[in-house]
Amino acid sequence: MIRNSVKAIIIVNGEILLTKNQDPEGFFYLFPGGGQEHGETFHEALQRECLEEIGSSVQIGELLFIREYIGKNHEHAAFDADAHQVEYYFLCQLNGVSCQPTNPDSHQIGTEWLPIEMLHTKRLYPKAFIEPLQQFIRGQKTTIYLGDIN
Questions:
Q1: What residue stretches are annotated with the Nudix hydrolase domain (predicted)?
Q2: CB under 8 Å to 35, separation ≥6 — which residues?
């Protein structure tokens, strides 16, 4: 089964808001968002996920990127070989200030604003997202569909 997921790209003054997570290998960062539930629109799912993970509602703007993740093609294939997820990344703005997440993911330990030019020094998933994101920030034309990247 293919799972839809919606993600928020929240940028303020050259920094991006990400969820900060931890596993045995250390810290890693993800875009806020998550899986669409049955009966939800993308916007409803993204609002719910942002409240759960960053503690704020968002104003949802344009769709910037679409990414697929087909588990058997990536480094953790032994754990998620059957996974097939399509992720939709929307440009968003915070409605007010983010506060405590209401239902963070299991590995999530908080949120963090990171300078976009420093993303290559962090363990960000999907890592292949850094270049298209930087192109977008520079005002360069980017491809919306990024394919099966990690």
A1: 1-138
A2: 3, 4, 5, 45
